[in-house]
Design a protein that fits this description.
The complex is a heterodimer of chains A (355) and B (253). With 355 residues, chain A is mostly helical. In chain A, strands 1-4 form a two-stranded antiparallel ribbon. A two-stranded antiparallel sheet of chain A has the order 2-3. The two termini of chain A are 22 Å apart. Chain A has one domain: ABC transporter involved in vitamin B12 uptake, BtuC (Orthogonal Bundle), CATH 1.10.3470. With 253 residues, chain B is an alpha/beta fold. Chain B has two domains: 125 residues, P-loop containing nucleotide triphosphate hydrolases (Rossmann fold, 3-Layer(aba) Sandwich); 76 residues, no CATH class. Chain B is 39% helix and 24% strand. Classes of the chains: A mainly alpha (355), B alpha/beta (253). The interface between A and B is medium-sized, with 30 and 39 residues.
Amino acid sequence: MRNPWAQTGNYRTRYEQDASIFATHRELVSLLLFLGFLLVLPQFLSRTQVFILDLILVYSIAVLGLNITTGYAGLINIGQAAFMGVGAYTAALLAPAGLPFYLVLPAAGLTGAFFGYLVGIPSLRVKHLYLAMATLAFQVVFEWTVGHLPLLNQGGAMPLPRVSLLGYEVGFRNHYHFWYYVSFAVLVLLALFFRNLLRTKYGRALVAVRDNDRAADAMGMDPGRTKLFAFALGAFYAGVAGALYAYLSRAVVIEDYTFAVSIKLLAMAIVGGLGTLVGSFLGPAFLELLDVNMEALSNLIKALGFSVAGVDVASALRPLAFGLVIVLFLVFEPRGLYNWWRVVRSYFRTWPFRY
Amino acid sequence: MAQLAVENVTLTFGGVAALSGVSLAVERGELVSIIGPNGAGKTSLLNVISGFYHPKQGRILFEGEEITHLSPHAITQRGIARAFQNIELFSGLTVLENLMLARHTHLRYGLLQAGLFYGRALAEEVRNRRLVEEVIDFMELEPYRKALVGNLPYGVRKRVEVARALALSPKLLLLDEPMAGMTLEEKEDMVRFILEIRARGTTVILIEHDLGVVMDISDRVYVLDFGQVIAEGRPEEVAKNPRVQEAYMGVEA
């Protein structure tokens, strides 16, 4: 019997084994170690640092959803923030009514999925840019409707109550740490769920309608239903992310779910690598950390009192870096950070051997 | 009763008649070829049978059931599979995944079972994987199992296209020029595959330009020209038909 720990190749002899996610023991163990590291990490960080991690986790969930709709199923969606908003407002309405957060989150996801299904209906007829327009329309309608509904405070702040879990009260001091662990658990669950879908007919169907929906039709599947499914599932993830974002920021305001946020999510998906699972985490992490560092840098510049002809260089730095990074990625690495990850991983798969 | 009956089908695009009054009948287990010059309506006929186009007049019966206005996936679910002329594979997926897609409607598990990969999900995947592996074995695609389809050479992709249609376990297989652009060796392989498919009891409708192949392997031949059936019969009868000779070689001066 060969030692599974020294495995550098493919020992699979049965189809059951071929359906597994991890090629080697080492891959599984390194992932578990990394997850363990993420579990203890907040203990060594300040509250503001944990808040950054919270944002990365929540955006990862939304970007994962966007990757399902746009990356895997190829349906351009530039209204993902609106789906987040649907989830957030669901939370803003349900949470004050006394519903615990672990029920609010799935409810927000389902509301998101319902709207995703509705917005997906044009995808039965139109494709590409025209579909992008339909999702943009949803974004606009969402912002307008919220801005005019007294029920939703016309886009003004709607506070969320403090939560407690099994007698554990979440207050000011442990707020970010608490939502870190909740978001972490939700992200791991949702990512695992989608990774599993990818090795079943549901995941294959998404890629099939992206690559060739005519041939998908000839395979006996209904491409229209698959597209609606892609929209609903992607919006489910966005809805959950929106509710988490609402809890995290203690209140829902329309500014957190605008068109600019949709573009930011799309940028995260592209920088991470469109149509890849790992890219859904790399993209948000990279852009959020970049943003934080640029903020620190611009504060430094401000402190130095440096300015050119009265222009505030510091505050221009963040959008400038954001735009520059996207352009650089589109030109030099359109496959995103995922491609770097792939290279590193294939190196370690056979390590210490070259091949 | 014929397994597939196309009755008096007319298909028009604007004012142009792609098919006018085409009828054909295919018996279970037959290998029927459709030949004709370019633009005669051969591919249009396959598109009508497989539901991509819906005819203006006439009807199509498959095993006694009318399928004229059904959508392609509904027709596929009834046992008609199709290999496309211009390869229409899922280029972002591996050969194995392409073939597993053909098993889509045979995989019986729900979304929750799939997402948790629990219950029937694994067992169903493995059961259908076995069937797909038989097709891979049959079409001699073993070396390419895990290769992305987009990276494969043309001849192999053509074979994957036929394999994917076979993985649907069809009762009737529609092949649209499976040998176009192939080398002689690849053609011989493909002919071997087609004969073997027929020998296993699957009805085959073949569109092919290579008349040598058509005359050698077909049970019956239909000749289309300008959207009409101009001749029908055993290969040697069709070859002698003056109208066919006229369509292929022009009118003698």
